[in-house]
Design brief:
The structure holds two protein chains of two kinds. Chain A is of the alpha/beta class. Helices cover 45% and strands 15% of the residues of chain A. Chain A has twelve helices and eight strands. The two termini of chain A are 13 Å apart. By secondary structure, chain B is of the alpha+beta class. In chain B, helix 9 packs antiparallel against helix 11 and helix 16 runs antiparallel to helix 17. The chains are: A alpha/beta, B alpha+beta. At the A-B interface, strand 3 of A face loops of B.
């Protein structure tokens, strides 16, 4: 079983859209996939029309994988299950700070799901704290969407610095460009600069697209309602690169 | 791991309308996932239903082939023509899946009918989320009509599933519970397995008088051989003749080795009659064996001899067709029916029990025979050196075969696990001796083909083949002694003694 994450310290960069679409493509490729919505706003659960069943269970999240499994819900697609988020997931940092071995906790609990799933996709909240660090330990690779703007460039540099300070393997971080507007000179320039600076950016580029925004209204991955559109092709290309990376890491 | 298990209801009406228009309740709606599809299908399998016995179904619909297995994705392929053997398929996945199961056997239709299949999603109003799925699977032909609705749960939607299940109970009557609804289940449910061809068997009473048991066993073997005759007459595959011959050879061997169990005239009569029935089958079998091995032989020859080999194959195929016709005529002739009736009459005669040998319990007789055969194999076998004439090696093969027949024909009298161990220990020796003999037979066969032809390329190809086979046979000859030593080891003696429930004694050399 592999665990991957979609993570960024910054909000609104396309984390959830990415998590939703790659989990969908993984499942469509026949991989038994679980998408865990760690973001208390629950956007990826919403996109898959899935609601959490119990209000107070978040407290037990890190106790036993069987508790976790009890909260899993099937999506409308074969091979894809969702662990929906709840608002009380916002207390995860506090909850983890009270636990022993808190950084390894998430990895340990998720390892119990290896009989059920081949791939776990973590959709993470935009923050940096105990939960994020637990994700950094559990997931590999960690996919980081980056909008090619000065601010995002700075945020990515901060994340690398954080990894360096905390001695997390920085090779886990796999950035890619998201919400790209080809006509903007700043976007082009930033992409060139960052590709020159960091060699590990994925080739696939997710465009800024109304189709991605429409996921909210359609409550489905892009492929379901905008199959032949550029945004969908971009997610397919992104998934293909990711799967190549996953296969390489397995070997 | 779904929260709950699927539930099934028998199909009475094929229309899904009975669930629609609010049939499932106001908040639930039915959405087509894969539209109802009805197909005329034929189920294919070999004579022994090897696929069926291995929980596989090969379903043909037009040119579409599907190999179904429980809890696995079906293997599908489109095939032009009508592939008969595993090697006739073009799909590598199908060839791989079928080859080990069908071996040399041909596929034949075993059942035809119409299969209807459809899937629906059941959605709940509000989030419009799929909460469970509904499947319809139905099989129908002239004699059978059977099918199921199956409600399939989705993880995390137990309450919704229960609600739909209650509605279904109201519409269709109480559910039958969790059933493994697939085509295999439906056909098993129709008692299709009862139609599976089975070997003729008799129950052996270990204390029965030897004459009664041996005559009964001969009769059973001859009846079983008879099951393969229609397949030979239809010329479906080479295994019908092979199995026919094996059963008759076993019967003949049994008559010979159980000397004294049957009266002398009965033994002599059966021996002659069985030999008479087997005699017309030898030529076709030899030709079949050569044709089955043709790819291996072809690969032994360089390019320059390929055209000569092609000519040889053409000649052998022609001879095979002729031999097949001759055998088919014989098997449909009065001569054959009369011989068969004579065998059955002779074997079926009431027991005379005129001699002590004929009266002794069968297990005692077989025990003695197994012990005797084993000791003879050890004695004669260990006397073989690398310089012993080939004739002795052939004799040893026949002795081994007799022991093997005894062990298989009377297997019911012994502990299955011990029996398996002995047969396993015999395997290497028997394979080597068998191949050694086959090489000799093939050289003779090829020499005969060469003598019958005037084609120089054919004669050259045959000479080349004979030379290679001769070398292979020489190489195999070097393995004979080590295989015998392996088989005659004290471990085998101990297993034989366990089988016969005796104290272990050293093998008499």
């Amino acid at each position: 079983m592999r665990i991957v994450a979609c993570y960024s310290m910054k909000g609104g960069v396309g984390k959830t859209a990415t998590a939703v679409n790659i989990a969908y493509w993984a499942a469509k490729s026949g991989i038994r996939t679980l998408l865990i919505d760690l973001d208390p706003q629950g956007a990826s659960s919403f996109y898959f029309r899935v609601k959490p069943s119990s209000k107070s269970w978040g407290k037990r999240f890190f106790n036993a994988y069987k508790d976790l499994l009890g909260q899993v819900k099937a999506s409308d697609y074969d091979n894809l299950d969702i662990l929906p988020a709840h608002l009380n997931f916002r207390k995860f940092d506090v909850l983890l700070s009270s636990l022993k071995k808190r950084k390894a906790r998430l990895k340990k609990i998720l390892s119990g799901l290896s009989d059920e799933y081949q791939l776990i996709v973590l959709d993470c909240p935009p923050s940096i704290g105990d939960l994020s660090e637990a994700v950094f330990v559990a997931a590999n690779p960690i996919f980081v969407p980056v909008i090619p703007t000065t601010l995002s460039q700075r945020t990515y540099a901060q994340l690398l610095q954080f990894f360096k300070e905390k001695k997390y393997p920085h090779k886990k971080l796999v950035p890619f460009f998201s919400m790209v507007q080809g006509q903007k000179a700043l976007h082009k320039k930033t992409m060139e600069e960052m590709r020159a600076q960091y060699s590990n950016f994925l080739d696939a580029v997710i465009p800024f697209s109304v189709d991605v925004e429409n996921m909210g209204e359609q409550r489905a991955p892009v492929d379901v309602f905008a199959r032949s559109r550029p945004a969908n092709r971009a997610y397919v290309a992104l998934w293909k690169e990711m799967v190549a990376l996953l296969n390489k890491k397995v070997k | 791991m779904p929260d709950t298990q699927s539930l099934a209801w028998p199909v009475t009406v094929l229309e899904p309308d009975l669930f629609d228009n609010g049939g499932l309740g106001e908040k639930l709606s039915l959405e087509v996932r894969s539209p109802p599809k009805t197909e005329d299908v034929t189920l294919l399998d070999d004579f022994d239903w090897h696929l069926w016995q291995d929980n596989r179904l090969l379903v043909k619909s037009g040119n579409d082939y599907q190999l179904l297995a429980p809890a696995a994705e079906p293997i599908t392929a489109v095939e032009a023509g009508s592939p008969q053997f595993s090697w006739d398929f073009t799909s590598p996945a199908l060839v791989e899946a079928l080859a080990g199961r069908l071996t040399l056997r041909a596929l034949r239709p075993i059942l035809a009918g119409r299969v209807t299949q459809a899937w629906w999603n059941i959605r709940e109003a509000g989030d419009d989320k799929i909460v469970c799925r509904l499947q319809l699977l139905h099989f129908q032909n002239e004699t059978h009509s059977q099918g199921y609705w199956q409600l399939v749960p989705l993880r995390g939607y137990q309450k919704e599933f229960d609600k739909v299940a209650r509605r279904m109970d109201k519409i269709l009557g109480e559910s039958l519970g969790n059933l493994p609804v697939d085509l295999h289940f439906i056909l098993a449910d129709l008692a299709l397995d009862d139609a599976r061809p089975r070997a003729a068997t008799i129950h052996l009473d270990s204390t029965a008088a030897s004459e009664v048991a041996v005559a009964g066993m001969v009769l059973n073997l001859v009846r079983d051989a008879q099951r393969h005759v229609p397949g030979i007459i239809e010329d479906i595959d080479s295994e019908f003749l092979h199995d026919f011959r094996v059963q008759l050879r076993k019967a003949r061997s049994l008559v010979q080795i159980t000397k004294g169990a049957l009266s002398a005239p009965r033994q002599a009569g059966l021996k002659t009659l069985l030999a008479d029935v087997m005699r017309p089958t030898g030529l076709l079998r030899d030709l079949d064996v050569f044709l089955l091995e043709q790819q291996d032989y072809r690969s032994l020859l360089p390019e320059i001899h390929q055209s000569g080999f092609d000519q040889l194959i053409r000649n052998v195929k022609n001879a095979r067709n002729q031999a097949c016709k001759t055998l088919q005529q014989y098997l449909q002739s009065d001569t054959y029916s009369n011989q068969l009736v004579s065998i059955i009459d002779l074997a079926g005669e009431p027991a005379e029990l005129a001699s002590p040998s004929s009266q002794q319990p069968i297990y005692l007789l077989v025990n003695k025979l197994i012990s005797k055969r084993y000791r003879k194999i050890c004695r004669n076998g260990l006397a073989i050196t690398d310089d012993t004439p080939d004739e002795e090696v052939h004799n040893l093969r026949i002795e081994c075969k007799k022991l093997r027949y005894l062990l298989t024909i009377f297997g019911e009298l012994y502990d299955a696990a011990t029996l398996k161990k002995i047969i396993k220990r015999m395997k290497r020796l028997q394979t080597i001796l068998g191949n050694f003999n086959d090489y000799a037979v093939q050289q003779e066969f090829l020499a005969m083909q060469s003598a019958k032809s005037r084609s120089q390329p054919l004669q050259m190809a045959v000479s080349g083949l004979i030379a290679v086979i001769f070398q292979q046979q020489r190489q195999l000859r070097q393995q004979v002694c080590s295989a015998i030593e392996e088989f005659a080891a004290p471990e085998t003696t101990a297993i034989i003694d366990t089988l016969l429930a005796k104290e272990t004694e050293p093998c008499e050399l």
